[in-house]
Amino acid sequence: MALGPLERRKPEPEPRPEPKQEPEPGPVNPKPDRSRRPQQHLSKEEMADAKEKFSLISRNGEYITSKDMAALFRTMDQPKSDPEIQQMIDEVDTTGRGVVDFEDFLSMEKPDQLPDSEQELREAFRVFDMNDDGFISPEELHDCLRQLGERLTDDEVDEMIREADLDGDGKIDYHEFVQMMRGAT
Questions:
Q1: The two domains 42-107 and 118-181 share their CATH topology (first three levels equal)
Q2: Is the pLDDT confidence value at 64 over 60?
Q3: CB-facing half-sphere around the CA of 90: CA atoms within 13 A
Q4: Average pLDDT, whole number, for the chain?
Q5: Which residues pair with 136 in a beta bridge?
Q6: Rounded to whole angstroms, how far apart are CA atoms 53 and 170?
Q7: What angle do helix axes 154-164 and 138-147 make, rounded to 10 degrees?
Q8: Which sequence spans correspond to the domains of the chain?
Q9: Fewest C-beta atoms under 10 Å: which of 32, 136, 144, 183?
Q10: Any residues with CB less than 8 A from the CB of 167 and at least 6 apart, and which?
Q11: How far apart (Å, rounded) are the C-alpha atoms in residues 79 and 82?
Q12: Is the pLDDT reported for residue 65 higher than 60?
């Protein structure tokens, strides 16, 4: 059928392009993926060192809690707020439980985040050397740990002293403290 000059054919609508679907946003704080983590190649000595440092921080030996982290930073005379500590934990926590297990600890950029500068070590030593005589006695260690919320038996404190006491005098001097903190005992 012929269309007159005034009659126009309605153009067929052009097919609309499908709206682009934006990918769903990921979690605000994605957890590290252990499968993508570069393999840790640690010697037996480095692994033992990491385990020792982990056990110094963790009260239960299985994982590091925010309370454990808070106690660590207090001993270094660098107190952190609860949100700061939780953010630090969240950065390495792969389980989403709000704690750092040993594998998470190993994945940290610097698993030896314990004090390592001379100044930090001296400050930490001063916290434990409560009478400022240049030594950490079992009593000072016990009292300091109690003030930090650690409930250890006398036997546990004595064991800690024995492990760090290189010269066998029953107390920890600064050199022994540094060796213990750096895992070289």
A1: yes
A2: yes
A3: 10
A4: 75
A5: 172
A6: 22
A7: 120
A8: 42-107, 118-181
A9: 32
A10: 173, 176
A11: 10
A12: yes
